[in-house]
Specification:
Blueprint lengths: L10 H6 L10 E8 L5 E4 L2 E8 L4 H9 L4 E7 L16 H12 L4 E6 L13 E2 L2 E2 L5 H14 L3 E4 L6 H11 L8 E6 L6 H7 L19 H13 L3 E5 L5 H10 L4 E5 L1 H12 L5 H14 L4 E4 L2 H10 L1
Parallel strand pairs: 1-3, 1-4, 1-12, 4-5, 5-8, 9-10, 10-11, 11-12
Antiparallel strand pairs: 2-3, 6-7
Helix pairs in contact: 3-4, 4-5, 7-8
Bound molecules: ligand PBG and zinc ion.
Zinc ion binds next to loops.
Length: 321
């Protein structure tokens, strides 16, 4: 008889043969910075997550650093939006100013700048709009400019989330030509047109005002296409890739892990977070165990690092142990 139970008898033995672990170093915490003053605004669909103004954001950054979380993913919410999302690439835009602040006060915290237009456009789309269509090529120079101004401000990593074709190449070229050959790109390579982003769009005020994002984000029905997207981003020069959403797309994570050698980051998105929080608030599930099980499932599927709104909770639990 094969006695699998031999290695399951005590916590010491289970720990000895454990294949995957979660450490604070694995985690990336998303943060929403709002252009205003003395602002700490809860997001109703995301319990415990807030928008902060720059003058209030240190209270959250102190927690991140104290808990040993190495990186944040920064999203900006501008006071004013316009047709072409100019706040995204303004050298004194909200993320650019926030990054300068962070790099001065927390020089060792890695700042990942999310690059997209949807938080900054009046129509809420990730690219320029003409006659109801989302323009691809005309959007690329704006994304490239957003990457450069955020890198100028001190961003450590550039993370384009727009899903326009050719944006990695355009951004790489612009970074290289503007003195940032060593700033890496972490592209949202396999990003589905997902209903799981709903709470994020509340948080960032970035829901499209007409139509949806299906003409640029991937059809959730497709798995092979995700491999082509990743291959293409690697060919264009991305250094690392994101698979997103994470939990409902673990098959894609696993295939990307098997086919490519680049670092993979799982994005445990807002809707995945909110579902756990809602069930936990009702006393229907054990939040801590469910969250850790979700994290380990992403690791098992091949994720190297995890972007998650649970990051502060997890790092706190790990510290307690
Ligand atoms: C913006 C962007 C989105 C997310 C990350 N960057 C929303 C979207 O594409 O509509 C989703 C993150 C989340 O749901 O937590 N392009
Ligand atoms: Zn977008």
């Amino acid at each position: 008889m094969r006695r699998f139970r031999r290695l399951r008898q005590t916590e010491e033995m289970r720990s000895f043969v454990r294949e995957n672990r979660i450490l604070p170093e694995d985690l990336i915490y998303p943060l929403f910075v709002y252009e205003g003053e003395n602002w700490k605004e809860p997001i109703p669909s995301m319990p415990n997550i807030y928008q902060y103004s720059i003058d209030r954001i240190d209270e959250e950054l102190d927690r991140v650093v104290d808990l040993g979380i190495p990186a944040i993913l920064l999203f900006g919410i501008p006071a004013k939006k316009d047709e072409c999302g100019s706040g995204a690439y303004d050298k004194d835009g909200i993320t650019q100013r926030c990054i300068r602040h962070i790099k001065e006060k927390y020089p060792h915290l890695l700042v990942i700048a999310d690059i997209c237009l949807c938080e900054y456009t009046s129509h809420g789309h990730c690219g320029l709009v003409e006659d109801g269509h989302i323009l691809n090529d005309a959007t690329l120079p704006l994304l490239a400019k957003a990457a450069v101004t955020n890198a100028d401000a001190g961003a450590d990593i550039i993370a384009p989330s727009d899903m326009m074709d050719g944006r990695v190449a355009a951004i790489r070229k612009a970074l290289d030509e503007n003195g940032h050959p060593l700033v890496p790109i972490l592209s949202y390579s396999a990003k589905g047109a997902s209903a799981y982003y709903g709470p994020f769009r509340d948080a960032a005020g970035s829901a499209p005002h007409f139509g949806d994002r299906r003409s640029y984000q991937m059809d959730p029905s497709n798995a092979r296409e995700a491999i082509r997207e990743v291959q293409d981003d690697i060919d264009e020069g991305t250094d690392m890739v994101i698979v997103k959403p994470a939990l409902a797309y673990l098959d894609i994570m696993k295939t990307v892990r098997e086919k490519f050698l680049v670092p993979i980051v799982a994005y445990n998105v807002s809707g995945e977070y909110s579902m756990v929080k809602a069930a936990a608030a009702n006393g229907w599930i054990d939040e801590r165990r469910i969250v850790m099980e979700n994290m380990i499932s992403m690791k098992r599927a091949g994720a190297d690092r995890i972007i998650t709104y649970h990051a502060l909770d997890i790092a706190g639990w790990l510290k307690e142990k």
